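Quick entry between incubations.
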Amino acid sequence: MTAAPTLRVRDLSVSFGRDGEIPAVVGVDLDVHRGQLVALLGESGSGKSVTARAVLGLSDARVSAGELRLGDLDLAALPEARRRSVRGSRMSLVFQDALSALNPVLTIGDQLGELFRRHRGMSRRAARGRAVELLRTVGIPSPEERVRAYPHQFSGGMRQRILIAMAIALEPDLLIADEPTTALDVTVQAQILDLLDRLRAEREMAVLLITHDLAVVSQVADHVVVMYAGRIVETGPTDELLARPAHPYTEALLRSVPRPDAAGGRLYAIPGTPPGPAQRPAGCPFHPRCAWAVERCATERPVLSTVDNERQVACHRATEVLDAAG
Amino acid sequence: MPPDEPILTATGLRRTFRAGLGRGRVSAVDDVSLSVRPGESLGIVGESGCGKSTLARMLVGLERPDAGRITVAGQDLGAARGTARRALRRRIQMVFQDPYTSLDPRLTVADIVGEPLTVHRVVSRTGRRARVAELLDLVGLPADVASRYPHQFSGGQRQRIGIARALALEPSVLVCDEPVSALDMSVQAQVVNLLADLRDRTGVALVFIAHDLSVVRHVCDRVAVMYLGRLAESGPTGAVYDAPTHPYTQALLAAAPVIGRRRTARPPAGEPPSPIAPPPGCRFHPRCPLAAGACDADRPDLRTAPGGTDAHLVACHHAEQAVAG
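Done. Structure below.
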C-alpha cells in the first residue's frame, strides 16, 4: 500500500511513575491504512492497551512520539480541546467492558443521541432518529423500541453492539477496539467479529484491534503487530506471520495453543511468566524464556529489522527461526 | 472397586435459584446426569449461563441440588451423614477459576496448602510441613515458597498453589472450573500440562469445565456440551468434536475461532435466552436452524447419537438431519 496511512505512529513511548522511570511502551511504530484491520497482539502487561490509549490521547502517563498522525492531522501538536473533538468524531474506541462503559442512568437513545447533538448540533428529535438508524446498523432487533431502554436491559453481546454503534456514529476514520470480544461467549464473539468486519468493509474504516487471542487475530486481521514487554517483537501480514513466525515468542505462542490434530499429548509450554514493566530483563526482554537464546541475547537488545518484504522482527536469530518454520 | 466403575456419578441433578422478588426462578441446572471413572477426564463445555459452574459446585458440595443424586465410589453423598459424609466429600476437590481471589492474601502458601490437612485432621504438625513440601513439589514449585504470601506470585504460580491445595487430601476427583481462563496465554499451557500430568501420575479423575473448546479437546477423554442447564450432547471427545450431532454443538464448534482457518460458517443468530423463563420443549429451538414440529413442545431426551456408539448421546429430535448437514 502506497497511500498515506490513516494512522501513522513513529517511536511512541509511554512511561509511568513520578519521574517516568517505568517504561510501559518503548519505541512503537504503527501504520493502519484505510479499510485495513491491524491486530495488536500481546499478553497482559505487554503495553498493547497503553499504546491504544496513548494514540487516543487518553493516557495520563508520559507520552512521547516522533510522529503521531491521523491522516493529515498531527495529533501530537493538537491542543487538548481540539484533540477532544477529534476523539469520537475522527477516531473512536470500543472498550472491553460494555457495562461499565455505558451510563447506567441514561437510555441508549440519549447516549447515542448525545453524540449527534454535541458534535453535529442536531435537534433532539433528529438525533433520536439517527440513534435508531445506528442500532439497526449494528443489528439490534426492533430498534425503535430498544432505543428507550437502559444499558442493564441488554445482554452482554447487545451492549457490545451498542458500544460499537457509539464508536461508529460519527463515521470515524479510525476505530480502536480494545479486547471487544474477550468477555463474550464464542457464538456471540463470532457475531461481533462479523459486525466489525462488515462495518470496516462498508465504511472503509481503519481498525486497530487490541487482543490477546491468536485465533481471533487469525480470523479477522490483515496485519499483526506482536508486542512483548512494551516493545514490538514482530510484525507482518497475518497469514504469513502465523504460518511462518520469525520471532521465538510468536513461534512459542503458536506452539502452545492446543491443536485438534495433536490432542492428548503434551502442550508446548513457554517457561516462566511475562515480566512486569518494572522488572524487564536486559538485552532481549524475552531471552530468559526463549528456547533460542544465546549469550548475546542477554546483553544486546535486538532491533526491529526487516526480514522479508513486509515482515519485521526483533531477534538476533530471526533468519534461523524463520528457516526452521519451513 | 474395579477400575471401570465410575468414581463419581451424578443422576438427574437439578438446581434452581430465586431470581429476585416476583421474578420467578432461574433454572440453572435441569436434569443433568454424568459420570467419571478413575483417571478419566470429562470436559464440560457451554456458554456463560449454561449452568456449568453450578454443576461443578454441586459436584463438590458447595451447592445443594434440589433434586438428583451424587454418588462417590458407589456411596450416596446425599444419604451420608457426619463423618461418613465428610470422608466422601474429601474425595472431590475443586480448583477455582480466579487464582487472584481464591487464595487468602493473609495466609502463607504453607497455611493455604496445609489448611485442608488441618481441617480434616489428617496429619500432625510436623507431618504437615513435609506433606506441604511434597505437594508443592508435585505442582512444580520449590519448597522455599512455603513461607511466602500469594501476592508474591504470578497468576500461573498462584494457580499451582490452588492445585496443590486441592490435592492435599489426595482426592479421587478434581473439579476444575475454568482453571486456565484467567491466565496469560503463554502460561496456560503450563497449567494444562500440569493437570494432565497429575492425572496420569496420581490417577485422579478430572472434571474440566471450560468455555475454551480447544483446551477441552486437548485434555479430555469425554466431553459433555451444556446449553441452558441441560446436556445437549455428550460422548467421547473425538466423536463429539469430529462428528457433532446436535445443532448447538455444531454451531459452537463452527463459531470457535481456529488459527489458520478463516471463518466460513455463519454464527448462530441470537444469544442464549434467559434461564429465568427457558423456552419450552428443546431449549435451543428458538436459535436452531433445524427447529420444526415438536421442537417447541416436546423436550428431547438424550439418546444414542445417529451413527455413533452407545457412549455418544444427543438430545435432539432432528439429530439425523443435523448429521446429514
